[in-house]
Amino acid sequence: MSAPVTGRCLCGAVRFAFDHAPLAARACWCRDCQYLSSGNASVNVIFRRVGLTLHGEPLAFESTADSGTRMRRRFCDRCGTPLFSEAADAPDLMVVRAGALDDPGLARPGGTIWTRSAPAWGLVHPDLPRCEGQAPPLPPCP
Ligand SMILES: [Zn+2]
Ligand SMILES: [Zn+2]
């Protein structure tokens, strides 16, 4: 088993650890992610839910994503840091916002999704696979 991957929110009220390395990471330009990441793509890191240890109680916001999937997004109620998202159709996976990792360097994206929602100035990595819309969480992009 690999070393734990740890993270927290900005204020430290919520802390978490996964007992395994990320399965995948990718950048997402969907409109919802732009709200979460101050206008840029969000970088989302995918783990197995069973490996999660969570300290603190993030609040949850549920909505339907552009993909039509029911999503539950969790964030710190003190500092507002976006932490996790969980898709109703992938209950065994846990998505972590890369900025909340103690070492965001672990979250190198393997692809970019929802590029059609990016603004004209949006920088999409030229060398990575990209999808105009949604792609299955694993693998990062077809
Ligand atoms: Zn916090
Ligand atoms: Zn997104």
From TrEMBL:
What SUPFAM superfamilies does the entry give?
Answer: Mss4-like (SSF51316)
InterPro entries recorded for this chain?
Answer: CENP-V/GFA, Mss4-like_sf
Which keywords has UniProt assigned to this entry? Lyase, Metal-binding, Zinc
Q: Where is the CENP-V/GFA domain?
A: 5-115
Mind telling me which Pfam families this protein's record contains?
GFA
**What does the sequence similarity comment in the record state about its family?**
Belongs to the Gfa family.
In its UniProt entry, what is this protein called?
Answer: GFA family protein
What species does this protein belong to?
A: Muricoccus vinaceus
